[in-house]
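FAQ: What does a ligand-bound record look like?

Like this one, built around glycyl-adenosine-5'-phosphate:
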Amino acid sequence: MAENTLMEKLVSLAKRRGFVFQSSEIYGGLGSVWDYGPLGVELKKNVKDRWWRAMVHARDDIEGLDAAILMHPRVWEASGHVAGFTDPLVDCKQCKNRFRADDKRIKGTPGQPDAQCPVCGSKGTLTEPRLFNLMFKTFMGPVEEQAAIVFLRPETAQGIYVNYQNVLNSSRQRVPFGIAQIGKAFRNEITPGNFIFRTREFEQMEMQFFVKPGTDMEWFERWREWRMEWHKSIGLNPAKLRWHAHGPGELAHYAKAAFDIEYEFPFGWQEIEGVHNRSDFDLGRHQEYSGKKLEYFDQAANERYLPYIVETSAGADRVTLTLMADAYREENVEGETRVVLGFDPGIAPIKAGVFPLVKKDGMPELADRIYHDLKKQFTVFYDDSGAIGRRYRRMDEAGTPFCITVDGETQVGQTVTVRARDAMTQERVAIAQLGEYIGSRIRGA
Ligand code: GAP
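The answer part, i.e. the structure of the complex:
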């Protein structure tokens, strides 16, 4: 399948089946902002739940947090975002389009006569690069003045740093320990795109791990390993995952070491998560800007220090897109194309479809009873419309791993058929065993 065709197919399937819609579509849409439909919200929720379970519930050394999106404006001065969270922007004076100065499609040097606009092709019409801050601004209170400016957070991490002492004082944690948070972040990206890959409003799943200086690289390596394992555990194809080490020119201002987990998308290898050794940069800056001591007192060693931070930062939307791209396949079945989202059963938005074979002989009533029973434990979908083959295909497209059909034998033997999405094989299962059957196949959910 041609690579861009796959993305077009994904976008179209996402809309048709209710995974993702363009924001404010009836008004023509809003640039690179997306809404999640009934299936998409379940899929993304499963991503976040799996992350939360692995990072918070399954560990003794990490606490959860939900900090506000709006923060004191000084936070963004301390973090370096006011001064440095910028992209170089160039305009085409001819067609009025805007680009990042490092856009690979630009031929020549922006600002010089040889530079060519990648959209209208004009030469010498691109302006000199100027720095553009990616933070969204708004005003707090009724007066729109400089003193009232606040920002929509461009990352969730800062909410963790400013609460590090609150969490330490209110929990039983001692260094080394971590704080995890899932939440919205906003960036006024100049070149968003590739569907929900790079958007202006997105969700991050970030964890900051506070460690004793000198032990930071050990923790950094551990976290690299654990995070790669997590991506495999949600069903991503390991052959499409790799590490990218940041070279000296690539490292962010706060980072001592950084690696990205990349996935091979139809549009190339791209970052889905960053693991960073942020040293004591963040706590050091917040200590300086707030005037509050943020040192940790290690009672056992009787010493004070500013902890180093190892950060793991993944995008919930980006992981959701990764799962969809990884799961999409087309098969030829008896001369027809079968579209399948082959999600791992634990991550699939719907776990089972429940169908009466025909709408008579008590089958709908029985199917309805099974549906309501299973609904207490799993996300299930009832469907009695159309031929059974079409109902299977609809579930294949939604990525549903099991289809349960009530047929003529059900009344007699109290069994149903369970059809597996991938192998398309069917087996008879006792109604009483259905909960156990599905539950045991939902690895990690
Ligand atoms: N606190 C560190 C930080 O924010 P980042 O590399 O800028 O680091 C981390 O972002 C992750 O957030 C990325 O790996 C990506 O998954 C997600 N992300 C960043 N910008 C995004 C955007 N515009 N749209 C969707 N996801 C984004």
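Follow-up question: can I read anything off the structure? Yes, for example: The chain has a mean pLDDT of 96.
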